[in-house]
Amino acid sequence: MSPQTLTITIDPDAADAPFEQVRTQIADRARDGRLPVGYKLPTVRGLAEELGLAANTVAKAYRALESDGVIETRGRNGSFVAAAGEAADKEVAAAAEIYARRARRLGLDHGTALAAVREALRAAYDTDA
């Protein structure tokens, strides 16, 4: 992929909805560096036309990416890849802290609380589920 081209493939037969396919592909490329920090994404309408999707579908993907800290929208200037790694690390650490405090308040022992996290991660990351 050239630095000026964002190539996304939508599989109409995939289990994931088109907006999720767009979100996942952009997020994966931002995280592994194929889309560098500061990379300007196509407009919602432009990407929607290119992919043959409704503008609302691409807009939903962009909103999810922004919510996850992967991209940032700068008004009329467009949407850009953000420094997502640090934001994601902070968000997951905060979520883990909240979970740990809640588990302790509920009286769960360390092993039970950890088992619940492992099961949730297995379910979230297991592609066969």
UniProtKB/TrEMBL annotation:
Transferase recorded as keyword: no
GO MF terms, alphabetically ordered: DNA binding; DNA-binding transcription factor activity
One of the Pfam families matching this protein, by short name: GntR
UniProt-listed SMART domains: HTH_GNTR
Superkingdom: Bacteria
UniProt-listed InterPro entries: Tscrpt_reg_HTH_GntR (IPR000524), WH-like_DNA-bd_sf (IPR036388), WH_DNA-bd_sf (IPR036390)
Protein name as catalogued: GntR family transcriptional regulator
The species this protein was found in: Streptomyces gilvosporeus
Lineage of producing organism: Bacteria, Bacillati, Actinomycetota, Actinomycetes, Kitasatosporales
